Amino acid sequence: MGSLLEVTDLKTHFHTRDGVVKAVDGVSFSLAEGQTLAIVGESGSGKSVTALSLMRLIADPPGKIAGGRILFRDENVLEMSDEQIRSLRGDRIAMIFQDPMTSLNPVFRVGYQIAEALRLHKGMDRKAANARAVEMLELVGIPNAPSRARDYPHQFSGGMRQRGMIAMALACDPDILIADEPTTALDVTIQAQILELMIEMQQRTGAAIIMITHDLGVVADMANDVMVMYAGRQVEYGTTDDVYYRPLHPYTWGLLDSLPRHDISEKGDLCPINGQPPSLIDIPSGCAFHPRCPYAKDVCRTDVPELREIEPGHSSACHFSGEPEFTRDVMPCSADMEVE
Amino acid sequence: MSERFRKGLALVLALALAATMLAAGGCTTKTDEEPGEEPAVDEKVGGTFNFYISEPAFIDPINLQESEGTQVGQSVFDSLVTFDPLTSEVKPAAAESWESNDDATVWTFYLVQGAKFHNGREVTAQDFKYAWERICTPANKSEIAYHLGVVKGYDEMQAETATELEGVKVVDDYTLEVTLNYAFADFEYVVGHPALAPVPAEAVDADPAAFADMPIGNGPFKMAEPWAHDQYIKVVKFDDYYGEEPYIDGVDFKILSDQDAAFLEFQAGNVDFVPIPSGQIQATVDEYGESPDGYTVNPGEQVSLGEELAIYYLLVNNEDETLKDPAVRNAMSLAIDRQDICDKVFEGTRVPATGIVPPGIVGHTPDAFKSSKYDVEAAKAALAEAGYPDGAGFPKISLEYNSGSGHEDILQLVQEDLKAIGIESELVGSEWAQYLDKLGAKDYQVGRLGWIADYPIMDNFLYPLFKTGSTDNYAFYSNADVDAKLDEARMIVDDDERVAQYQEIEKIVGDASAVIPMFYYRHTRVASDRVNEGIYSPNGLFTFESVWLTK
Amino acid sequence: MLKYVFRRILQMIPVFLGVTLILFALRIPGLLPGDPVQLIVGERELTPALRAQIEEEHHLNESVPVQYGYYISGILQGDLGRSLQKNRTVTDILLDKFPNTARLAVSAILVEIIIGLLAGIISAVKQYSFWDVVVTLSTSILVSVPVFWLGMLLQMFFGIKIKQWTGGAFSLPMSGMGSPPDLVHLILPSITLASVSTAYVARIMRSQMLEAMGQDYIRTAMAKGLSERVVVFKHALKNALIPVVTFIGIDLGALMGGAILTESVFSWPGVGREIYLAVMQRDWPVVMGGVVVVVLIVMFVNLLVDISYAVLDPRIRYGGTTE
Amino acid sequence: MSADRQHPDGGDLHTPRGPLDAGGHELQDQPPRTLVPAVPEVTAHPSRTLWGDAWMRLRKNKLAIAGLTWITFIIIVTVSADLWVPQNFAEPTSTEFASMQAPSADHPFGTDRIGRDVFSRVVYGARVSLAVGILAVSISLVIGLALGSLSGYYGGLLDAFVMRTADIFFAFPYTLFAIALLAVLGPSYRNVFIAIGILGWPSIARVLRSSILSVKENEYVDAARAMGASDLRIMLRHIMPNAIAPIIVYGTMSIGGAIITEAALSYLGMGVQPPTPSWGGMLSEAKALMIPAPWLTVWPGFAILTTVLSFVLMGDGLRDALDVKMKD
Fold it and tell me: Into which CATH architecture does domain C90-312 fall?
């Protein structure tokens, strides 16, 4: 069967006074029904913009989807009319956001905000929509849902709000749920609950999930596939196991080494990546990662590495990926290095 | 969005439309009201006159004194007699006739029978007695009781030893007998004052405060509703009026504190009679035409520029160290270009004063004040003579005025003229009551005042202004010779001799420039083009009895 | 909620006392020009007996704190004294003027709401468009125009210059002061009075809309599939309106306290002009009584605004966040 | 929110005061706001100093520069007026000409009703307006900065007292208060700026206080204190430079406000007294002469409008350039 979502060479650019920001610059991936894809990267790597681009939520101006194709059930989202895309949003593709504190409208009741999408997409009347909203709140584990539905967002705690967001996103039983760092703003204990909830909900509804996070650890249990982004490009793409256990790209190594995760730790020590993500206006020549890469050679400074399939279903955008001696084990801890 | 915007725009347009319709509606109702119900048999009949006044202090006769209140009061009340608006002759009003005994100490007034108050009750002699005693009762705090000062029993009432005016006797319902303390041949003028009109005791006693805002009188117009303070006073024709019925249906006295605003309202067509602001007189005359006699206004002859028996003069503090020198005062007087002021501020509609007594008063002498002319050289010479060549050593003086009445313009011109002979000065404006306080306390150097005739005689301009100790002698001029001559003049029986005596006095004070005459007052008012046969009398009251409005 | 209202009222008390104290200080002899007794007497002759009587009547012979006590208790009983210039009590005078001021204030507020909100929304939604530039520039100009000058120009142009065309639709206000008052006469003064606030409303509306439209919850609403129109006019507007409504409320309070300049230009018999005229005539009882009343009105309306603010904004209504 | 908010005016004398204008008017020089704020952070240029950066941004703001140019022009014209206006036109108080002349080569703005040259009066009127504006704001600044910084820095009872006093000031309708104050002080040039200055301090104090409160929380202040710096030193070296930006913006706008207030007071007869030319006073004299002599109304009003507008645009530009968020 064809995949649910097929993204090819997506480019999203922003036109600012200081120049063109290539926030997403040629990203391709696909998502099958009921699958979970994790997009991982530091802030500014373009992962959120990718997600927003999928729903065409990029404000134009200054943003513009400059190229590529997004096929949702074989229909190109980028060619849809405004009306078509609106009927997709919230109904077939839903999204939850990073900060539950600000993502709910403070002046509308939580139940109302959930019901809004139902009334819009499912043509429910107010009563039915409200009943369904309460149901959804119950489903996501809000105790005393009927009265809580009449609360305002500020009366909810952060975790409850994110549950509310999930209820809102899943209300219309979407095919794809895009979760943009859904746990980043939450306490660690709550984070686990929310992730659990998402897994549970996925099982219940069969929705595919695109999980955006900067934290590889978060996705280990959830994702089928992982896409690592850096400076607007994919640097590595593969199944979760591939990426976790046989990472190919030095940046992925760096990410993994930054994790305080003892279960998969092979070196024991934390080893953060040095330096800052690059300015997207002024992307380094060649491999964008080269200024921070301990292996950078001359070719890295001049040639842009293509994303290559190194092993079946596992690709990397590094000049040296696939070379047998070029493995994670040889990587020195970059924290010891002087990187300007 | 754009659809929403279109809806919003439509809403705004709809509101604007509604406002316009409201406007149109407002106008229609107004025109509906104005012509009145009566069929226009006589084209003169009907209409409401919109008359500008500033907020009166009182419209209840008990304290009727300033022009605004008097203007309203005289339309609501009729006193025993009234005056011809043009000739000031005494005419019958509430009294159809009257007589006095030979030495003019006892006056008998015979009232019109059947005359009614606006509450429908007949006016009787008792109502006059009540009204007068009300004025004379100190507890009522009337400031105009002095009108009745000649009446026997007045002093006792003021001293609170009596509660009735002994000299006022109700002979019968229609006969009022008044006994005076001494002979007073002009008493008939006194009882023409609107303040001495009858008031219905039952209405006053019931609610004095309500009466003050909605007095019930016996005049040609009655109050249509209580006085809306600072907004309007409406009076309508009183159908049972005993006298001649006025043509107009009523008068809306529109109250505005600001004459400039009043003129705007006139230009907008909302009021029928207003003062013309300085700077607009000539243009107004050109546009609306001048009244031939200066007092009667008709369409095309709408501007009233008639003479008033009044003078505008500068006060000089005669006790001030610098200014007590007559040479200094003469120098200042000579330095002032009065014609320039008349031209600029009054556009030539006023005439430079050459003395303190205006033309129109018997005995007026041209050039009575020798320094009342513009002569810069002479002024400089006089200043040098006083010891200040070219103003050297002359202290900076203050020019005081009451602010907000346009005197700034005149005093700024004076200031420039004084500067030309070397006298530096500063302008100090203060509010009227405070200003009078300052003058009375001798806390000023140069000021300004106007003086209006109570009676058209020279004495009225000289005695109060220059007699030592007179309350109106704000210049604090004091000359024993003049004092003696003033007293003497009052006793001179022969008219010519008396006038000659006054002329001599005027020359003495004039030579010393005791005050500095500036110019003689004139009316500067304009009527709208629907006003016919309106008369604005020399004493500054508009006559509603004769006026009619073009439809 | 009740507690909140109660606390706000408590907060008003020291402010009110401070205001009355300042006003009372102005009455202390020597501070104001002129002898207070002479001012009260006016043009009547002042005899020592009369002076004693007046000092007695007005408690001028008491010590200053006692006088303040009388003054405050007078205010609390609604007794503001008598005008020195007019034969009326200050309360009567102000009661006369207040309806006019209120009428003008309310119609000015309507202008503010209709024009200000509309301009602000258009400007924000069509940011950087021609209309945005027009709105932004004209609000800058409007806040820089002296209202009295604007009033003069409007009066001149609509009231007189083009009166033939408009059929007197913009008659100057004075003649409208009949009973019942003619609404047409409100147009020019209310536009004048509203001018600056309208500009402020438009600017606040614009920036609040822009701010609201940049919020995360707007993205949420968009992601829900709502149309841009619904998002802008429901989700953004409802949030953006709260500060605007507050401003309008406070402005209403200020306008209820009288608008001296507009009322002067149009000779509008309102509270502000009455107090101004009283200042000019040194009619101190009217000035002080008037200012006290105006301050009370302003404080009262502000209290109402605060309460309605709480009603509007659930975050305040239900206390702070639960965290 | 109730304690810390303010209204620009009591009644209708609106003075352009910044804080209410919650960040509007970023027409020229702010990053564009987008429906979805997804523009990645961009650090394009090496950062300069705060002031250098601000000046760069201000320079790009055409409206602010227009305002600055106009203010400079007016200052030059009015300061140099003694050198050329009386010689070529007239002394501002001279009444030597025929009255109510329409504008001509001799009298570019015509003459008024007592024969003075309107151009000369408008030029000299700028002195009054600018002087009152600047002096009044200086007074507000001195009082406001002193009380605001003490209040913000020390807090406690002092803070409560200062802020309650400010509340009392805000409770009075602005115009009324100014008029009442002038009735007591007596209307004059000097008293006008004193009155406006006195009425202006609470706003300044509040603006400064709140920015001090936010700056005070910064760690470098704690660090300085830990190193034993004196209160005064902390205030002057660490807090003030960081709290001063809103004051600059606010002060600029307040000058415009003070100019409008002065004009209004003079219009009402409570301000600058004749014969000193002032724009408000000139308008007051022109009240009834708008039809026969429109130039008497047009020019002084235009002068007020453009001058105040210049300060408003400057203030807006400064706010954007210094990136001051002004709201309560």
Answer: Orthogonal Bundle (1.10)
